[in-house]
Write a structure and sequence with these properties.
single chain, 381 residues, alpha/beta, UDP-N-acetylmuramoyl-L-alanine:D-glutamate ligase, Protein-Tyrosine Phosphatase, Chain A, 10-stranded mixed beta sheet, 6-stranded mixed beta sheet, 18 strands, 30% helix, globular
Length: 381
């Protein structure tokens, strides 16, 4: 019996196509999904493979054109092949968001983590494009190794493509898009809250406009009706509910902070109740103990849900009590700890009309998420 990993299959499927690998320590799912949607909406007939479930269109597709958008994961291919998944995708072009040390169970040092991205950038041919976030941690130094054409992107600054005049609109955001000193026009991004998603959209623009794959008008039209994704700042309650529940993967410090900052920006005067489960190993690793300092600055209250206990704690792994103490040390508001769905629902007692509930986990929070949403809807909506 021949056993193959999905990167093995993707390596076969990406032969002969122009493969845009979207990668980095955060933002890759949202950015890859936007890129696939823009090409699809513009009629470019792309292929794509995403690590997230989009709303209203499939997670993977084989199209008829040369364009293939892939979310590029740096984690090993399989138990028997420790090459990063993205190294198997025959990258022609890439979007690189940031290189903050993650997956610490495998990449023990920051250098071992960053080295995988150096290898990826080194694979890009001169005919490709590297869209590099100008403010992304360690991105400029890695981008400097590229033989491909480098296009920088970010907020207001000396970038090739930038978003400016950011503002919030109901259910999304709006900004101006600039390219090499020229104002291209206004962009409205539906179903995506937060400045970080404007940055992700700028990365998509940097890549697709540089290749001439779409016009600005087609890009703006697609982003205006972008349907969003599951578990990425996803609104779980109906519009008429007086308490909004949002769910987010929040699998690292940066992702968690971006999620809470997006909610705080959208709802500046509301109380935000953060229900957080440290599901990933990195959140439980003692090497990440400093992640908790200030992580909940945009929350009003934190409820810690115990991490999954699939095995005994390793020597470098923190348990609930240790994480609870770290949160309390770095957060001035109320903090509670729970370990099951019933206890989590009980922690909704202080919630009042107009408040926001932020559910933060890359797991299922002991199946508490549907119970939390149902309890909020039953009481407020």
């Amino acid at each position: 019996v021949v056993v193959r990993s999905f990167p093995d299959e993707l390596e076969d499927l990406t032969a002969g196509t122009h493969n845009i690998v979207v990668t980095g320590s955060f933002g890759k799912s949202s950015t890859a999904t936007m890129a696939a949607w823009v090409l699809h909406h513009a009629g470019a007939d792309p292929s794509w493979f995403l690590g997230v479930v989009p709303n209203g269109f499939p997670q993977a597709r084989l199209g008829g054109s040369d364009w293939f958008v892939l979310e590029g994961d740096e984690y090993p291919t399989s138990n028997w092949d420790d090459r990063s998944k993205f190294a198997r995708y025959r990258p022609t072009s890439a979007i690189l968001t940031s290189l903050v040390h993650d997956h610490k169970n495998f990449f023990k040092t920051e250098e071992s983590y960053v080295e995988r991205f150096r290898e990826l950038v080194g694979m890009l041919p001169p005919s490709g494009v590297l869209a590099a976030c100008g403010t992304g941690y360690r991105v400029p130094e890695v981008a400097a190794l590229s033989r491909a054409r480098v296009v920088t992107y970010g907020g207001e600054g000396p970038w090739d493509v930038s978003y400016r005049a950011f503002r919030r609109i109901p259910g999304g955001s709006a900004f101006e898009l600039w390219r090499r000193g020229e104002r291209l026009g206004k962009v409205e991004l539906s179903n995506m809250l937060g400045v970080h998603n404007a940055e992700n959209a700028a990365g998509v623009a940097a890549m697709l406009l540089e290749h001439g794959a779409v016009s600005f008008e087609a890009l703006a039209s697609a982003l205006a009706c972008f349907p969003g994704m599951k578990r990425r700042c996803e609104l779980k309650t109906p519009p008429e509910c007086s308490v909004a529940v949002y769910e987010d993967l929040s699998s690292s410090r940066e992702k968690a902070m971006a999620f809470l900052a997006a909610l705080r920006g959208q709802f500046p005067d509301r109380r935000i109740h953060a229900f957080f489960q440290p599901h990933t190993f990195s959140f439980r690793s003692r090497a990440s103990a400093d992640w908790y300092a200030g992580m909940f600055a945009d929350a009003s209250r934190v409820v810690l849900f115990s991490p999954p206990s699939l095995r005994g704690l390793g020597a470098d792994e923190m348990g609930t009590q240790e994480i609870l103490e770290l949160i309390r040390a770095g957060f001035s508001g109320p903090v509670a700890a729970v370990g099951d769905a019933e206890s989590a629902v009980a922690e909704l007692a202080p919630v009042e009309p107009g408040d926001v509930v932020a559910v933060m986990t890359s797991g299922n929070m002991g199946n508490a998420i549907p119970a939390l949403v149902s309890a909020v809807v039953a009481r407020f909506g």
